[in-house]
Amino acid sequence: MRGPHNIIRLIRTGATLERTGAMNVVLEAFDAPPFLRLVAKTLGWPFKWLGYKGDPNMPPATRALTALGPAYIKFGQVLSTRPDVVGDELAVQLRVLQDKLPPFPVEIAKKSVGDELEIPADTLFSEFSEPVAAASIAQVHKARLADTGETVAVKVLRPGIEKAFRKDIDAFYFAARMIELLSPSSRRLRPMDVITHFEGVVLGELDLRLESSAASEFAANTANDAGFQLPEVKWMLSGRRVMTLSWAEGVPLGDNAALDAAGLDRIALSERVLQLFLNHALRDGFFHADMHQGNLKVAPNGDIVALDFGIMGHIDEYTRRVYAEILFGFIRRDYKRVAEVHFEAGYVPADRDVDEFARALRAVGEPIFGMDATRISMGRLLSYLFEVTERFGMETRTELILLQRTMVVVEGVARSLNPHMNIWEVARPVVEDYIKKSIGPRAAVSDLAETLKVLVRFGPRLPGLVESALINQSNTVDPSRGRKLWIERGVILLGGLVCGAALFALMQGLA
Predict the structure, then answer these.
(1) What is the spatial distance between Cα 208 and Cα 309, in angstroms, rounded to a whole number?
(2) What residue segments make up the domains of the chain, in order of their start?
(3) pLDDT single digits (tens) 83-126
(4) Residues annotated catalytic, as ranges
(5) Rounded to the nearest 5 degrees, what angle is found at the Cα of 398, between the Cα atoms of 396 and 400?
(6) What span, in angstroms and rounded, lies between the C-alpha atoms of 83 and 90?
(7) How far apart are the C-alpha atoms of 437 and 439, rounded to whole Å?
(8) Which of 163, 179, 225, 188 is closest to 36 using CA atoms?
(9) pTM, whole model, 2 decimals?
(10) Sign of the C-alpha dihedral, residues 308, 311, 315, 320?
(11) Measured at the alpha carbon of residue 267, what is the angle toward residues 266 and 269, in degrees to the nearest 5?
(12) Over the Cα atoms of the chain, what is R_g?
């Protein structure tokens, strides 16, 4: 049923890439083999007249994806976070993709709000403006609540956007299968995994309840962060296709002239935006992954305000500790320790030479430390680090690529405010503070306490588990050996519980 649609969509895609001059750019970025290049050209060149022209003022790849529509724009934005897949040059081109599209009429937006919330928009809002921002997936209106008079922002999905994205995602999967079939060598790029990742990102943005949840969690994590605030989610006025938040007044963080006119300290703002991001990534493991100037404002009281929570990054506690140690090792220029951390974490295969790896890391770090302070970049450091670790057998980790990409963006924002900023000096106290709290005796005691909680929770089931294990082992070829083994395990586990209980009691006494 979908086959003809997918083929037609791919022909139109190929024709647009050919017509805009982007075909060769894309094929080179993916290092496509000759046979795949021939197939792509066959799909594109004969039907070139069917392709979209696009804006000739844009670079070829950006021009083609913008012309192809919302799903392709969003796909390009996601690929811009994956230089491991598309290469650095194309990733840089894709980062400038703007998903601004013509707005849909305000009456359609109000109808969508009424359908989703089951109350007419005119009943809920005494004022409801024309769109103040329109992107590929949704648009935003400024409104006033009828009951309290509070000013709010109402985000509404585009009509039919879910169906349109579903069609294009099906075509992307079809293309990925064809690529893997026609070019087995391309499997190293894992095209199906790339599309699956893209689908997950998009489906999250197409359900505004998930964005509301992300905003709420982010607000809870950052409630005590000085100089930072988030708009409040209005849960009773939000749903799958509508999201309502308190209105955020402020000066755009990218407007230096307006910031200066308001008497705001750009040097302090530059340091704060970087330290906030590092705190969110290391301390919370949950960070805003789209922190460009368009999503940041400065409130009248000087607080930085973050907007748009469709793309958030998550890093688990273990990975945060590993990468904090790696960053700290680079800050101290202790390359041997950085290498050991990679081996201890299992990121680099154990059969590789740790000293050789340390020398490779020194080749990454020393040129950066030799740079002028205004050129030092943690984002660039992580990019080089991923290149080296890949050569030593480390697999790509998507969440860390997203972290690196966001760090580059945040550094760009910080430097636009203060070109003379020393990134390392600003980052150092945040990384050191995290190291003190997460690695060492205090962290070990905290980890043991968490382990004890798990053991205590399973405590009532422990006798039954041990008895069941002993009964099962009694049916083995060597019953006595099995019983001895499980008795030993039981004794060790019970001993752990006793020791854990003692430790917990000691902690309570110290508290």
Answers:
(1) 10
(2) 3-100+162-204, 250-439, 443-510
(3) 656 776 777 777 667 666 789 999 999 999 999 999 999 999 99
(4) 290
(5) 90
(6) 8
(7) 6
(8) 179
(9) 0.74
(10) negative
(11) 60
(12) 27
